[in-house]
Amino acid sequence: MKIPASEVLLLLALIIPVVGSFFIFLCRKYPNVREGITLITGIALFANVSLIASRVFTGERPEFVLAEPFSGFTLSLAVEPLGMLFALLASFLWIITSIYAIGYMRGHGEDNQTRFYIFFACSIASVMGVAFAGDLLTLFVFYEVLTLMTYPLVTHSGTAEARRSGRVYLGILISTSMVFFLLAVVWTALEVGTLAFSIGGIYPEGTEPWVLGLLLALFVFGIGKAAIMPFHRWLPAAMVAPTPVSALLHAVAVVKAGVFSILKICIYIFGANSLHDLAVAEWLSLLAGFTIIAASIVAMGKDNLKARLAYSTISQLSYVTLGALLGNSAAWTGASMHMVAHAFGKITLFFCAGAILVAHHKKNVSDLDGLGRVMPFTMGAFFIGSLSIAGLPPTAGMWSKWYLVLGTVDAGELILLNVLLLSTLLNVYYLVSIPIRGFFKPLRTPVSGIKEAPLPCLIAIGVTTTITVGLFIYPEHLFQAVSGLVTTW
Predict the structure, then answer these.
(1) Partners of 135 in the beta sheet?
(2) Domain that residue 318 falls in
(3) Cis omega (within 30 of 0) on the bond before 230?
(4) Is residue 2 part of a domain?
(5) Inside any domain, residue 384
(6) Which residues 6+ apart lie within 8 Å of 14 measured at CB?
(7) Would the pTM count as exceeding 0.85?
(8) In sequence order, which residues have a C-beta less than 8 Å from that of residue 481 and are 6 or more positions away?
(9) Which of 121, 135, 145, 444 could pair with 195 in a Cys bridge, judged by C-beta atoms 3.0 to 4.6 Å apart?
(10) Any domain includes 217
(11) What distance in Å separates the CA atoms of residue 78 and residue 14, rounded to the nearest whole number?
(12) What is d(CA 392, CA 401) in angstroms, rounded to the nearest whole number?
């Protein structure tokens, strides 16, 4: 039986990174060829995902059943607007992160670089499975596979600290998903008889509110990759990994898979009407608001730059969780846009942190005084990324935060509105202040001339910074891509 071209493209989204990892292994003794294959694989995947998007925009909705492990329940791939956006984002940023990784891994003299590129590719394959999951069971399976594929990246250095952090990473993510997420999936299957995603949700009218409330709590706490408190410790623990891995965790794959899963479940499993009627949704949104502020306060006290960025990520992820739980069009639009805005803003910050480490071996904020005069390009990019995380112009983060603010107003949640506004001030304090001290305070250690990171690192930083500003100036396409989440599928 001939498989339609659209379904072939959908399968290739999983196959291309896996095949690429195989050839990376074969060329492990030839670094230039190995890294060339990494870039070619990334470009091929993005081209493939772009072809899927072009077909989706003309009205096609490709689907493919991978297996039927249980009668009536399948592992299947399908395309909807939110998943299409996530797949485009992840596949594009894989290319940029790979360029950066080449400069970083060589410049920093990292060991086991072949293993790094192999598991990087396998992680992106898992992300494609999450993005194109056609039902809740498939989403759960690829969510788990992603955890396992990123574990070797977290423990990449092989030190005792890395292994200890890896245990925290694996322990929290596996335990939350197995205890809460899987229970919610099984309960939903028994309650409804289907796990297929559907606009408006799948729970029938008359479902007991306490059942829906408990299921929503199980999903939110079970998706530990969203790092809502108290299940957030894995994220700062994972900062022991190399900077390209941190970029993968915080902008491309893991955390985005978490908030994407929560947003997708709120839209296509619960639906807006169910969320509006649940008191639990309001309590969980308040917990997300608490996470936003608490993580920001912790970030203010972190001198280690990557640790500060890690707690910033915990705070920013709860923006998306908050928007998902509010359950109105403006909030869902803001949450979807924030996945993109945060991805480009935060990956820029981590790229800059890695560039500083490679060029000057500095890890702490207190050591960055005057460094803007030595690394003007990197510190300027850090300033732009910080503005985006704070939600200030001229960056993409302003638009996503604007719609989230509108979402809180539409929901009548004045407490959460104030949370978003206070968060902006806190972000300015603990992020924007870094490049300001870098440019205007005296340099602690004299350095002659300009000394930036290797060129591949600067190219990656330049691309993500440019897009961060570009999405502020030209937000129309992004807005159009996410504004129809409630009405089009």
Answers:
(1) 196
(2) 285-489
(3) yes
(4) no
(5) yes
(6) 77, 125, 128, 129, 132
(7) yes
(8) 81, 84, 85, 336
(9) 135
(10) no
(11) 12
(12) 9
Grouping H, G, I as helix, E, B as strand and the rest as coil, residue 304 is strand
Residue 325 has what pLDDT?
93
- 3-class DSSP state of 66: strand
Query: Residue 272 corresponds to which tokens in the numbers above?
Result: 């807006």
- The residues pairing with 70 across neighbouring beta strands, listed in sequence order, are 73
Residue 205 lies in a domain: no
| Cis previous bond, 393, omega within 30 | no
Determine which helix (DSSP H) or strand (DSSP E) holds 427, and give its type and residue range: helix 414-427
Alpha-carbon span 168 to 345, nearest angstrom: 27
pLDDT at residue 488, as a whole number: 45
* Domains in the chain, number: 1
| Cα–chain center distance at 250 | 5
Q: Which backbone phi and psi does 51 adopt, to 5 degrees?
A: -65, -40
- Answer for the pair 404, 322: CB distance below 8 angstroms, yes or no: yes
Gap between the Cα atoms of 453 and 352, Å rounded: 9
CA 302 to mean position of chain CA atoms: 22
C-beta atoms surrounding 2 within 10 Å? 6
Residue whose structure tokens are 């350095």 = 447
Read off the tokens for 411.
């929901």
- The 10s digit of each residue's pLDDT in 170-216 is 898 999 999 999 999 999 998 888 888 888 888 888 788 888 999 99
Distance, in Å, from the CA atom of 298 to the CA atom of 300, rounded to the nearest integer, reads: 5
E strand or H helix at 77, and its extent? strand 73-78
Place of tokens 């009205």: 59
* Amino acid letter, residue 441: K
Q: How far apart are CA 59 and CA 479, in angstroms?
A: 18
> What is the spatial distance between Cα 284 and Cα 444, in angstroms, rounded to a whole number?
45
Per-residue pLDDT band at 45 (split at 50, 70, 90): very high
Q: How far, in Å, CA of 53 to CA of 69, rounded?
A: 29
How is residue 246 written in tokens?
Answer: 């941190």
Closest CA to 123 of 41, 30, 47: 41
Three-class SS state of 63: strand
Cβ-count burial of 276 within 10 angstroms (0-12 exposed, 13-18 middle, 19+ buried)? middle
Residues in Cβ contact with 184 at an 8 Å cutoff, skipping those fewer than 6 apart: 215, 218, 219, 222
- The encoded tokens of residue 169 equal 């990473």
- Residue 78: enclosing H or E segment and its boundaries? strand 73-78
**What are 55's two structure tokens?**
């077909």
What is the distance between the alpha carbons of residues 95 and 100, in angstroms, rounded to a whole number?
9
pLDDT single digits (tens) 358-403: 888 888 988 888 888 888 999 999 999 999 999 999 999 999 999 9
Nearest-angstrom CA–CA distance, 325 and 41: 36
